[in-house]
Design a protein that fits this description.
18 strands; about 30% helix; four-stranded antiparallel beta sheet; alpha/beta; Rossmann fold; eight-stranded mixed beta sheet; Lipocalin; 11 helices
């Protein structure tokens, strides 16, 4: 999943002289995978309390609220819950903060300044260029259940007519309608390809992101499913949509959400799962951590220690439902483990308690607790419509060799004989042709979505809606 990939941020920013006004906008740019990822932090102060929001312009994300802001001893700390990221920098008295950004064992230099940073365009040859040879409309629709207005783009082969259409469902983390990541816009590329091939597409900004209303931070997978349900119901009100040919395409977490909606809303006539899963969230996370760690060069002993720690923590999450009790159990466990390993290396400037607090902020978010506890298989067993499940064989986030068989097993157990399972050689989690499959490689690759993946989806959908 993508939730921990640069959008969910924890930043520790060295500040300035005691008289320095730290409020205002601070700009920086990460160099990740051969590309630029700009960040903008908007820091404000009310009475004696600091607060901040963050923009990630290159990912189309604006106004993401930070959960905690403190300032003292020339150190400014800006935090966002559910993020395993930190940045430590030094103020040089010239309104520049120079430091290092750390995430998941990887480090990146990051300089913050008052001056806005110009966008450096990455080569993304698949991004379509206007004018498009089809009809495009900006739309809004209501999630009546949660009283949320969602905003998106509907593309149709022509302005006049009646067309089959799919709803695109993003992966984890706050996403815009293009599922923009590291300069890539996979949902834009997919929507363009499908629409040119006679299939309409509705894609929208996640709740609480960009132009959609609502609160993203408090939402779980089940909440996002109600947004998709609202999108389907909206399409049924339009005369230019064939209401008997409405499908869903879900990527990553979207591949968990699509079956939830399809199992309840019988207006969904088919679903496509792009790197979807049918194993418990706790198991998926453990496999993901191991695969990415090995591919990144982590030592076997470190991998084993991490697996043992996380396995125990996930068992505690399953065992204790009360948040206060669970938080105390995890905290005590991590403290005990830290005492057993006094030589354990801490991030620069962080104590054991700081690291535990960071772990807890990640684990205790509503989304993460729900994800760890959730098993998608029973819902998949209730899906009766045709299902296409595709996965790249180099996907390190949702490994194909485990998840595709699990999806196939769940469909067969439920009696669904309309499942098509395909493993696509050489593709990663974003369905790019790749070398390693590591998330750090995503931005280095010019290709956004493999033509093989695009053709596989279009050909299958055409067969279903013929």
């Amino acid at each position: 999943m993508k939730r921990n990939l640069f959008i969910s941020l924890l930043l520790t920013i060295s500040a300035f002289g005691f008289s320095q006004d730290i409020t205002g906008d601070w700009n920086g740019a990460l160099k990740v995978g051969g590309m630029q990822l700009r960040l903008v932090f908007h820091i404000t102060k009310t009475d004696a309390v600091y607060s901040a929001t963050m923009d990630s312009p290159d990912q189309g994300a604006k106004g993401i609220p930070m959960s905690k802001v403190t300032y003292g001893n020339q150190i400014l700390t800006v935090e966002m819950a559910a993020a395993n990221i930190n940045y430590s920098g030094t103020f040089d008295n010239k309104e520049t903060v120079t430091g290092t950004f750390n995430q998941g064992g990887q480090s990146f230099p990051l300089v913050l300044t008052r001056k806005a940073i110009e966008k450096v365009e990455a080569k993304r040859p698949q991004n379509p260029v206007k004018p498009y040879p089809y009809y495009s409309e900006e739309v809004t629709f209501m999630n009546v259940k949660d009283s949320i207005k969602l905003a998106g783009t509907l593309t149709l082969p022509k302005k006049e007519g009646k067309f089959p259409v799919v709803v695109m469902i993003t992966g984890s983390g706050p996403q815009n309608r293009d599922e923009e990541l590291m300069g890539h816009k996979p949902f834009l590329v997919i929507a363009d390809y499908l629409t040119r091939n006679g299939i309409g597409v509705l894609r929208y900004d996640d709740r609480g992101c960009y132009e959609s209303k609502g609160n993203f931070a408090k939402a779980t997978t089940n909440d996002f499913a109600t947004d998709v349900d609202a999108a389907v119901n909206y399409l049924k009100t339009r005369k230019d949509i064939d209401s008997k040919k409405i499908g869903l395409i879900g990527h990553s977490e979207g591949g968990i959400i699509a079956p939830i909606v399809a199992s309840k809303n019988k207006s969904v006539s088919y679903i496509v799962l792009m790197a979807g899963t049918a194993i418990p969230g706790s198991e998926l996370l453990l496999r993901q951590q191991d695969l990415i760690g090995r591919a990144s060069g982590m030592k076997d002993d470190d991998l084993k220690t991490a697996a043992e720690l996380n396995t125990h923590i996930y068992k505690l999450v399953d065992q204790y439902q009360n948040p206060d009790t669970l938080k105390a159990k995890i905290s005590n466990y991590l403290l005990d483990e830290a005492k057993k390993h006094p030589d354990m290396k801490m991030p620069e400037g962080k104590t054991v308690n700081d690291v535990i607090e960071l772990q807890l902020s990640q684990l205790m978010s509503p989304w993460m607790l729900n994800f760890i506890r959730y098993n998608p298989a029973p819902i998949l067993e209730k899906v009766t419509c045709p299902v296409l499940a595709i996965n790249g064989d180099k996907d390190l986030q949702v490994p194909a060799n485990v998840n595709l068989p699990a999806i196939e097993k769940a469909l067969k157990k439920g009696g669904n004989k309309k499942g098509t399972i395909k493993e696509l050689p050489g593709l990663n989690h974003l369905f790019q042709e790749c070398k390693t499959g590591l998330p750090t490689e995503y931005g280095e690759i010019e290709q956004t979505v493999s033509p093989v993946a695009l053709e596989t989806m279009v050909n299958w959908i055409k067969e279903v809606v013929h």
